[in-house]
Structures are given as C-alpha cells and as structure tokens.
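User: Sequence recovery, please. Input:
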C-alpha cells in the first residue's frame, strides 16, 4: 500500500495504473476511520481494480467554533486498518497542496441543496465540501467514487456537482453502517460520554418510528412535533427533523424516492442520520 504525500508521485502511480487499463476508485475521508469508512473501501474494492483512499481534514468545511482543531486525527491507526482492506494507495495531502493559492478558487453549491437541513445550521459547509471533493477528483481522476449515505445531503451535493460539471465519474452511495443498537457509525460518536452513548440510538429509533406513522397515514406536523418532543426527553437538542425528496431535497413527491433526515446535538456531539421512506 502506497502512503503518498507528494502530488507528482501520486500522479505517476495513477498514470501507471491507467496505462494498464485498470479501473480506479476513490474513497474520500477525513480519517479517524471506523467500520463505516472501511465498508466504503470494501465497496470500492468490489467495483474497481485499484482503490485510493484520501485522508484530509478539510478546513474549508468547518465553520467558526466548530471542531476543526480538535477533530480526531489517527493516521497511523488508519493506515493499519486500510492495509487490511486491499486499498492500494492512501493520499495524505498537506493543506498547501490542497489549497496552493492564498486567495483560491471555490465552488458555490446551489442554495436549494446548500442552505437547507445541515446547510441552514452550517453556512458554507457544503461549499467547502464541494470545493475539496472537486480538487480530489482533479488530483486522482478516478473512474468512480464512493460516499456514505449517512451524509445523505453531502451525497446529493456530490452527485449534482458531477452532473453539472460533466465529470466522467460514477458516484456510488453506500448504506449507513450501524452499531448493534442502531446508532449510525461516526467519528464524532467518541465525543459522547457513557450516559449519552446509551441515549444516542434514540435518534435512529425516532426516525424509524416516524416512518411507520407516515406510512400509516398520520399527519406530518403531528409526527414531527411528537418526535421532536421525544428527542428532547431523551436528552437531545434537535436541529431538524425533515421529510424530503431523496432526489433533490425538495418537498416529497408521491411515487418518488423519499427520505427522513435528522440532526440533533447530544452533549458535545452533533449527530445526523437518515432513512429511506418506502
């Protein structure tokens, strides 16, 4: 497994693989890898000849007061985990490699995708995500890239980015990996103390309960209000509970894919989750 910090070296290896007509998959991460990340790598492994994982804590997607400085960085442990997955290369760029200009170019995500749900509470977040992912796409030039469905809004942003900029990259979504009690795996789960960790599965349980009620024909306003109250009783500080189109995050359309999405604080951890609504 190549551990790469030099862009010239990265491109030389990628060019060699392309000359052999090998299909290259990209899995972007911010490190501190857990089984959810490793699922993405395994998924990529099944769809490509070569897998490149990136580890980069991207400063442009963190807002003021967020956890950029304290975000867990565990590179040695991450590399050990990746070596067991069949990953061929890990790209570990420095900040000045990713952003070589002091006043650099950036991507603006359309407000329909960027200013709702998580974007409402994290202004500029998805602009930062789209900017760094586009840079990674340009550096690696993969045939496909794999992202987790846990960050569903992010997945839609990347799909629209690829469509709008005519990038020849297949974007694959991988189902959310969960703990045995239903909690979506996340690097930020480690911010939870034992009491909070015991309460955390209530977010997923609330979403599944909402789905059953909506499928039974219950009124959305009542379902949302009662679910929010239940989360508060469980110790959460909810930001949103939303029922949206799974295609563009607009109002849900009958007969089209739909999603229930949620974000809530539990102690120092901001947890997000979502489920498909059949």
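Assistant: Recovered sequence (278 residues):
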């Amino acid at each position: 497994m190549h551990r790469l910090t030099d862009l010239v070296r990265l491109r030389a290896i990628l060019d060699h693989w392309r000359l052999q007509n090998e299909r290259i998959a990209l899995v972007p991460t911010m490190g501190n890898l857990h089984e959810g990340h490793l699922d993405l790598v395994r998924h990529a492994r099944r769809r490509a000849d070569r897998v490149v994982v990136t580890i980069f804590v991207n400063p442009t997607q963190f807002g003021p007061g967020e956890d950029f400085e304290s975000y867990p960085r565990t590179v040695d442990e991450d590399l050990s985990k990746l070596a067991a997955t069949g990953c061929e290369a890990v790209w570990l760029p420095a900040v000045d490699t990713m952003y070589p200009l002091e006043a650099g170019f950036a991507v603006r995500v359309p407000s329909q995708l960027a200013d709702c749900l998580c974007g409402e509470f994290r202004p500029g977040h998805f602009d930062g995500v789209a900017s760094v992912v586009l840079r990674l796409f340009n550096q690696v030039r993969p045939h496909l890239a794999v992202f987790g469905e846990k960050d569903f809004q992010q997945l839609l942003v990347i799909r629209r980015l690829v469509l709008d900029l005519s990038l020849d990259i297949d974007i694959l979504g991988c189902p959310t990996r969960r703990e045995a009690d239903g909690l979506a795996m996340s690097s930020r789960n480690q911010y939870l103390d034992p009491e909070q960790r015991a309460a955390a599965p209530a977010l997923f349980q609330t979403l599944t309960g909402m789905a059953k009620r909506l499928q039974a024909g219950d009124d959305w306003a009542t379902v949302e209000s009662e679910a929010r109250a239940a989360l508060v009783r469980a110790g959460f500080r909810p930001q949103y509970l939303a029922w949206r189109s799974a295609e563009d995050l607009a109002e849900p359309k009958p007969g089209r894919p739909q999603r229930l999405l949620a974000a809530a604080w539990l102690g120092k951890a901001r947890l997000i989750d979502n489920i498909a609504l059949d």
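Residues 187-277 form a domain with the Pantoate--beta-alanine Ligase; Chain: A,domain 2 fold (CATH 3.30.1300.10).
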